[in-house]
């Protein structure tokens, strides 16, 4: 089975489907014979309008595009029918297809969906609907992704159900379908496993963090032009539980120094535009304020921000303006993790250092929350972290697990 071509371009190259759809479908007709049929044209237009409604967030747009585009391609090229005609049992077939797609539909690296050619956006023949990956540690050890080893995580399966259910809800509102076939699947448990009460939170240890931040401080002393920014980024990610998207500029916002705000009591807060386009205020600790002051002095700014100061929070390496690349932040953090790992190994603590080989940027957020929930009211931690429910914050509380394990350690293998 040959792999189909992509249908939906990146957000910055996607015209408004409500007003410019005829031109969009004309460009795709040559490579997608189905689009000569009006039923398929209407199918694509509905999908584009649904996905375009999430243009306020690049990450959300990408997630919804991925799932809906896969459904379109499978429905058109495998089932030979528009998505508006799919039944519940066919949606189940699609889920099975996503779990074990044919090898020709699986790529081994992320490539652009469309390319520029003679001033036009044309589909990229190397693109595939599914991509196989290896872990960060496996990649560093020289392993490469293989299409035969593709697997779909439980989180990815849950996302597929959620997004497709929203899509069919939209189709019902548009009167394109009479019912939601995803919602009619009663036995989702055969696809999605029930998890244990609490998943292990991925974090680095306090010893590892001591080495990481000390390493950042040493690098900042040796090369302040490069690593004063590194030190501030590391402290901000852990000390304010920031997500990587909350440090870089995107189409929704560009973090500035003026996002640090002092209230009438003299307390400092950091204003964040978080998931779901919701603003939240994060309390700024005294040590985080000291870190900010150090960073600002390096940048030859006054010790503390002024009201509505427009200075970029994290500047680009070169040129003016804010950093826009989340990959660049990941590389900065990874370099710091690597150097801390080597220092721990040199000090004879290789076993203690091993987690740093697989740690990601997001582990710093987990670490900060895990430590604070030990000493602060969990309601306060929840507000600072931007958790939608207390259940999410409760995942970081280890007390119950510690007590359960302590009582279980004395179990005997020879009962009296």
TrEMBL record:
Region described as Disordered: 378-416
Domain Tyr recombinase: 202-410
GO aspect biological process, one term: DNA integration
Subcellular location: Cytoplasm
Xref: InterPro entries: DNA_brk_join_enz (IPR011010), Integrase-like_cat_sf (IPR013762), Integrase_catalytic (IPR002104), Integrase_recombinase_N (IPR010998), Tyrosine_recombinase_XerCD (IPR050090)
Keywords: DNA integration, DNA recombination, DNA-binding
Protein name, UniProt field: Tyrosine recombinase XerC
Compositionally biased spans, kind Basic and acidic residues: 395-406
GO MF, one annotated term: DNA binding
Pfam families the UniProt entry points to: Phage_integrase
Gene Ontology CC terms, in alphabetical order: cytoplasm
Species per Swiss-Prot/TrEMBL record: Marinomonas gallaica
Top-level taxon in the UniProt lineage: Bacteria
Bias (Basic residues) ranges: 407-416
Main localization (coarse): cytoplasm
